[in-house]
Amino acid sequence: MRKFLVSLTFLVIAAVLIAGCTTPPPVPQPTPATLPPTVVVTTTPAPPALPAQLTRNWVLTTMGIQDGTGVTHPTTEISLTFNPDGSLTGYDGCNNYFGSCTLSGMTTPKGNGMTISNIASSKKYCATLADQETMYLTILGKAMAYNVDGNQLSITATTGDVLIYQTPASLVTPNQYSPQG
What is the count of structural domains for the chain? Predict the structure, then answer.
């Protein structure tokens, strides 16, 4: 009987060991439902409309160049018009030009922050006005700030050069650019 008990004990121990070494089959887990990806629509806010005090027709009266140490007056009418949507158009004495204006919302020592970009113009060549036209469009393209004081607009470039405009109605001599004047 002793053999029987030893054999039985051995069989019980073996059965326990064999049962302990096996892992139960995995319990199937429910698969979570696959949801479609969430679409997040982000929109870039439209640039703010330009203020009414800026959105007018302007006529250039003075260019302060070399950080304002040199002053020149245009020899022909140069105009600039800002539109509420941020576009701009004008005449540089020889060609029509256009571009876009963005306000930064920052205030600088020279006025309200702005940039003028994407300036393009028609391609007529005017030998006597070429230097003036190039200087004007270069300064305008480097605009960093503007200031409106009544009927006067000044645009300051990153170089320190300044363009000063008046509204056409405020010019002392509206025909100051005519060959006779």
Answer: 1
- Greater model confidence, 93 or 4: 93
Q: What does the pLDDT read at residue 49?
A: 76
Question: Which residue range forms the structural domain that includes residue 76?
Answer: 57-168
* Domain membership flag for residue 83: yes
Q: Report the C-alpha gap between 147 and 141 in whole angstroms.
A: 16
Highest mean pLDDT: which range of 24-28, 68-72, 77-81: 77-81
Task: Determine the Cα–Cα distance for residues 148 and 152; give it in Å rounded to an integer.
Answer: 6
Residue 140's domain is classified under what CATH number?
2.40.128.270
Is 134 inside a domain boundary? yes
